[in-house]
Amino acid sequence: MLGIIGGTGLTQLENLKITRRQLIRTPYGEPSGPLAFGDICGHPVIFMPRHGNGHTIPPHAVNYRANIWALYSEGVRDIVAVATVGGIREDLHPGVVTLPNQIIDYTNGRKNTYYDGKDQLVKHIDFTEPYCPRLRALCKTAAEKAGESLIQDGVYACVQGPRLETAAEINRLERDGATMVGMTGMPEAVLARELEMSYAAICPVVNHAAGRGNSVNGIRYEEIDKILDATMQRVRNLIEQVVILHAD
Ligand code: HPA
């Protein structure tokens, strides 16, 4: 079963015909909201809005463990997550859609493992390749079918937020090798891996990172909103193709 996690600008999928919604109880507390069960073009999908239905949960307060657990417990084994980012690398300007292949985790204080129970084994999972190559290839083909150019690689820096970065922080992230910056990629990706689920992220660039491009004097939310509106319809079309290909 395929699960889609929607982020900012994607609290619902208009092309998803919802048959029921259900709030799943988990050993880790409440997920961001009820899961939406339905189908896209006749293919079953489960959708989870990461920030809640009304987009009220900030990135640092998302219960990532409950969200991933809820999807797992309903049979999801493949997750395609959508998460907006700021572009650091020059070609990652607003409106571009990316498919990162690496992640650097700068978050702190988030509950980032299922392996922290006192009576559990110590487990160190392999995370060399944080995103699933099969799902990434599927997203790439889906983009071709949707006529969407998808930038194939990139290093996602996951910051704690909720504030945006300073210009110096962006320079440091770039020196570290990051090409884009967001707030929700971790621990989502690693929790999926711990449950042996496959995970890939589609990351629409909605602004130049702080101090770059037209954010040189600051980041303006009105600009982000304009880009979000224009980009998310394309992302919905892309997701539709992902769902169709996944069912093949
Ligand atoms: N920084 C961090 N997270 C983000 C940004 C950004 O510039 N844009 C979208 N999510």
What's the helix and strand layout?
Layout: E1 2-6, E2 17-22, E3 35-40, E4 43-49, H1 64-73, E5 78-82, E6 85-87, E7 97-98, E8 102-105, H2 133-146, E9 150-151, E10 155-158, H3 167-176, E11 180-182, H4 188-194, E12 198-208, H5 221-247
Helix pairs in contact: 2-5
Hypoxanthine is lined by residues 84-86, 159, 164-165, 181-183, 206-207, 209.
Descriptive report:
- With 248 residues, the chain is α/β, with parallel strands linked by helices.
- It has one domain (2-247): Rossmann fold, CATH 3.40.50.
- It contains 5 helices and 12 strands.
- It has helices at 64-73, 133-146, 167-176, 188-194, 221-247, and strands at 2-6, 17-22, 35-40, 43-49, 78-82, 85-87, 97-98, 102-105, 150-151, 155-158, 180-182, 198-208.
- Strands 1, 2, 3, 4, 5, 6, 7, 8, 9, 10, 11 and 12 form a 12-stranded mixed beta sheet that branches.
- Helix 2 (133-146) packs across helix 5 (221-247).
- The mean pLDDT is 95.
- The structure holds hypoxanthine.
- Hypoxanthine binds next to strand 6, strand 11 and strand 12.
- Residues 84-86, 159, 164-165, 181-183, 206-207, 209 line the site of hypoxanthine.
